[in-house]
């Protein structure tokens, strides 16, 4: 009987708990996936990271949306390659990645648009997406 309770106690130590980006303020994350998806009414640009990240969206320049992922590096070169989306029926023309080096390395995702379009931010755990209305 004691072994059963001991096993349960050990298992409970490994149960994952949700983590907020604020809790990991000083820790470096990794961008693990940059992607593009087409839906019937929207085009989605998304990024996945190893942990939740703090981010800033800048839409002050016409035709360009910039997303700064704080404390985020890109360890695999394939995740730095541009996504050429010009052949899709989408307001998104191109998605590029800029690595910002410094005391707190960050990554900027630059989304070039054919035309200005409304977008919606979606954040869930370690995934951030921008849905552009088609």
UniProtKB/TrEMBL annotation:
InterPro entries: AMIN_dom. Residues 40-123 form the AMIN domain. Pfam families: AMIN. This is AMIN domain-containing protein. It comes from marine metagenome.
